[in-house]
Amino acid sequence: MCNNKATSSADIFNTASDVTGEYIVSACDSCNKLDGEFDLKGGITLISANKQKTCEQ
Q: pLDDT for 36-48, tens place per residue?
């Protein structure tokens, strides 16, 4: 992802072996429209999109 200011959230599916699953990340408008695989820059916080791991606890 880029260095532009985050303006929205993006739903992503992470395929990294240590954190596989659906997540929500902050993103700029352009990155939010990306389709396909891309790399996140370091320091990005991944928030689980699984309600059982967040809202329903």
A: 888 888 888 888 8
DSSP secondary-structure letter at 45?
P
pTM: 0.71
Token digits for 57? 């606890």
Dist CA 15 CA 20 (whole Å): 5
DSSP secondary-structure letter at 19?
Answer: S
Q: Are 44 and 9 in contact (CB under 8 A)?
A: no
Joined together, the tokens standing for residue 5 give 């200011």
CA–CA distance from 27 to each of 16, 17, 37, 56 (Å)?
Answer: 19, 22, 15, 25
Alpha carbons within 13 angstroms on the beta-carbon side of residue 17 total 0
The DSSP secondary-structure symbol of 30 reads: H
